[in-house]
Write a structure and sequence with these properties.
Elements: H1 6-11, H2 17-28, H3 37-48, H4 53-63, H5 67-74, E1 88-93, H6 96-100, H7 103-114, E2 127-132, E3 144-146, E4 149-151, H8 156-165
Parallel strand pairs: 1-2
Antiparallel strand pairs: 1-3, 3-4
Helix pairs in contact: 3-4, 4-5
The structure holds FE2/S2 (inorganic) cluster.
Length: 168
């Protein structure tokens, strides 16, 4: 097992037996431990709210990787949150189809309505706005994702309906 810096070692938390067992099941699916890195990142993010330094260190420990190995993957994927996000994480696609069909206008509209720019969270912690890469909904662009839900063929009016429908 790789040694970790003392301050990181102190921060590492283990999860409930159920979560540890869930992680074990993912590790057991692969011939090499490191292949389980993405599902385990999602579990750690779900449990801790985002992937912080202690979460990164925990994954490194569990998969016999270095902290750098885990950071390399964590910083590649926009679905891995490296800082806390709001209750509703609005992720607007900025890739070609969505750009051509008005993603900028959608983000401007959301920014104006919520008073935040991409990368920011509202002071009440309710919304975070982010740009992300292709969501795989290019045929129904522009598209955004809030949590695990997809919203497509967006217009400013449709965005207002969606935001109005979200519970407090
Ligand atoms: S380009 Fe936006 S979903 Fe693919």
């Amino acid at each position: 097992m790789n040694p970790l810096p003392k301050e990181i070692e102190e921060e590492i938390q283990s999860f409930s037996p159920e979560v540890e067992a869930e992680i074990d099941r993912h590790i057991a699916k692969y011939p090499v431990k490191r292949s389980a890195i993405l599902p385990i990142m999602f579990i750690v993010q779900r449990e801790r709210g985002y992937l912080d330094a202690a979460g990164i260190a925990y994954i490194a420990r569990r998969l016999d990787l270095t902290i750098t190995d885990v950071w390399e993957v964590a910083t590649f994927y926009t679905m891995i949150n490296l800082k806390p996000v709001g209750k509703y994480h609005i992720q607007v696609c900025r890739t070609l189809s969505c750009q051509l069909l008005g993603a900028e206008k959608i983000v401007e509209h959301i920014s104006k309505r919520l008073g935040i720019k991409p990368g920011e969270t509202t002071p009440d912690g309710r919304f975070t706005l982010s740009w992300v890469e292709c969501l795989g909904s290019c045929g129904t662009a522009p598209a955004m994702q809030i949590g695990f839900d997809y919203y497509e063929n967006l217009t400013p009016e449709r965005v207002d309906e969606i935001l109005d429908s979200l519970k407090e």
